[in-house]
Fold each of these.
Amino acid sequence: MNLRMSNSNEKMMGIGLMSGTSLDGIDLAACNFWFENGKYAFEIVVAETFPYDSEWHDRLKFLPQQDAVTYVKTHVELGHLYGNLLNEFINKHQLKASFIASHGHTIFHQPSNKFTAQIGDLAAIAALNTVPVIGDFRTIDVALGGQGAPLVPIGDRLLFHEYQACLNLGGIANISFEKNSERVAFDICPVNMILNSLATLLDKNYDDQGLIARSGAVNNDLLYQLNNLDFYHINSAKSLGREWFENEFLPIVASSTVKLEDKLCTCVEHIAQQIALSIQENQLAGKMLITGGGSFNNFLIERIQARTTIKTIIPDTQTIAFKEALIFAFLGLLKFQNKINVLGSSTGSKNDHVGGCIYSKGQS
């Protein structure tokens, strides 16, 4: 299959699959890409989020503590879940996609130990669909000495070039921006990983609009402990994973004796302070695009705006919710075109490169 665009007006459809660290669900986004005035352009044709049921949520949450056989079995079965879901999504919306790009679900992320692992068997996805499947975007970057994250900055540069910075408020906050003709990016701090975790203690999936956090008060002792974690003093390329969150961040919050509303309020303030610090240290100005689930947390957005002078832009709901799935579809497009899709300036790897592996069962 020839997946190159033959002319500037030709549209090519890819479907991006994203499963974030906060375990909110599986994001699918069917996206068209084309060239316009010498630059990439895009549209999200249709997108949906499919929540994990309670069984899958718990399987993924506790998988890092399971044995090797359970790990492999879950990897393969998750691939079949993704494959069937994609098949149904394509048929439901009568999509004519050229490829599928799957981020999978991260279970381990330890670049300092030279490994990262995203599950959701690509072979299973390919076996259940008629188009090529690309995934495993992070491992070559880690092998090249990088963090394997963040990968989104190439999409920020080529698809959202009108913004001076792009901030994602997902399970983890990350930011990207141009500096000295390079795209710089890094993870900042946990966001929905901690906010959702605290909300579940109140029998809620998340803190809707940040109303619970707004009702609380900042606890200065807890805030001080969080702000002084070693990670925040690293000046080189850096990324966060669930292991760091569970071993370093969560125990501090869990051991605090303040009420849950105050914990939520304090964590929101911590997030706002760390984001503001990143903006100030890099002297960012102009417009900053904010996307990810945290964009719907009005209280968090207010606290970020109160601590920064950069103009914050929150786009339409579809872009907020599906920007990462969109960009992973774009990474898939670049892979098929054999173009750079991972920036060493963002991940800390030795050089820019083409990340990902392609699985295909051939023409049916």
Amino acid sequence: MTQEPARTDTTILIVTYNSLRVVAECLQAALLTGAEILVIDNASTDGTAELVGTFPVRLIANRENRGFAGAVNQGVRATTAKYLLLLNPDAVLLTGIDALREACLRPSVGAAAGLLTGAEGQPQTGFTVRRLPTPLALSFEVLGLNRLFPRNPVNWRFRCFDLELSGTAPVSVEQPAGALLMFRRDGWEALGGFDEQFHPLWFEDVDFCARLKGVGKQILLVPEVVAKHAGAHSILNMALEIRRLYWYGSLLRYAAKHFSPTGRKLVCLSVFLGAMFRSLEGFPGGRGGAVWTEVARLAARCFFGRPGWTEKR
């Protein structure tokens, strides 16, 4: 990847949280794009902000963890760029990003994503792009059916295993990963930004894509743009029980926000039953009985439509 000319209308937004181990390689590659780079650090305690400060990039060092959606919105407001590229700190660009910008030049396009690959260069099938979740897809997920039967038709469609990722032409998709996602500022403004109630993380990018689709905007996968992606670098620093609580809480919020009452109740019931099974001694994944009780409580509150089940923690 060679140095590209400066792009004054494009900003790369990188949200960090205890990303010391991976962020340097990410920044080194991103600097070659010629785009402005803005790092929003969510109160890292491992020296991430100090390391970022040694690079010729802009840095916003938060004193508290504002969550991924909050940090993204903060970054967009801090720049005037027309095109914003979300780039995970554990994603290393292997190509330029001009093809994403060109895709976003079309007024009908709200966002464009690149292809994520593993360390060996293989596409991260099932993660790079998915279809928007349905109540049935999320129910299969929380009940463990997708792990037991990964080739079931619901999971196959949800994870886009039928989509060929080795091509070069842009493809219309529903939900690309937020690890390498460019969007237009005017689209972000029209939607009121990312929903910060998905706190501190998970499903905020899914929600953003769903809302773009809801206002008639197209989302493209541009395989010409590629980044090597490690994945899960920061969440591994969280206790497993906390990760579970955050993930299920955001999943339930998404279901309440986007599904019909019947669909929402199906997901809530599935989460409740899955949590009850996992709370049993000896059940696979059953460690941490207290957190499964809390997950079940959240699902019950969501099922009955009670306010307050998605409070920030």
Amino acid sequence: MQEYLSGVCKRSVEVSRVVPLRQAKDLAELKGFGYGEQYFVEFRVGGETRRVVLATLRHADFGHDYFADRASVLLMQHSTFNALPRHVRSVDIGSFTGDNGRLKSLGDCCEFFILTDYVDGELYQSDLNRIRQTSEFCSLDEERCVALSDYLAGVHSVKKKDSPGLYVRRVRDMLGRGEGIFGLTDGYTVGSGHVDEKFFVNFEKMCVEWRWNLKHKAHRLSQVHGNFYPWNVMFRQALDFTVLNRLGGELGEPADDVSAMTMSYIFHSLQMSAMSGDMSGPFERLFLLFWRNYLDKTGDEEVLSVIQPFYAWRSLVLASPMSYPQLPMKVRVQLLEFALKVLKAKKFDFEILGSYLR
């Protein structure tokens, strides 16, 4: 590690600590599938103490089966992280080699890793867990919701109307890549009590129809984050935050980002209602606040006519037994039923969220 970092920094460094970067226990209990190993590295260079994170990508599942699959994801991340405002900075892309596990920037590699700056703070997921578990809700929760909505409005304001092929590709990837709809449905065990093969055949047919609808919307191609959900937002004090783990490329459909974050509010709301039986509450307020602010800042009413397959995609992620093995069966069923109802809607009416969840 010391030899590798000296090469990256182009001067001698002294490594003082290398430890696994583990998530807090309360965050790890519900979420099952992880993307790989992460290590916190602290070192001194030129009298300065620096902290970075070295991360790998997990083998198998969701289209990461081959070395080339994992390399593609990490190379894409390294090339896009530093181009997005408030994103954690990528320092280097490197590889492990067959030579006694040595690390170097590239060469006779057998597995890639990415090196990023270390960002202190607390995941936004912690806020949502606290609200769900305690029902405590404060003005800062609303302010952070608006701040995230404002952030997306700013990111999506950057348009790219001269590359329609990129838009079509991102829509195609939503369905066909390993982490897309088809890859996720392959991860479900048919006959497990809440889904069967007929359900997924119908589900995928509806999504294919939406793909052909979206192919004519290439004018919407915009700068995106591509993986904008609570596990990828790190808050410090008040509204100071950094985003993590941009995925899929620099450009895409804004509905992807909006669905990812607002679906998280639905997810936690369903878990609360499973205990209380009441669909209204703090997460519905956050859901509406996020949407109203986003539309007020962007004026993008058309997003309500294209977000349906993206909500379906995110519903599959959250309902997946691989992703959330401890999720109550009732909530899994509600997520999948929500996806079907949304796919049938020509225009998503966020103001009547309850009608899609009952």
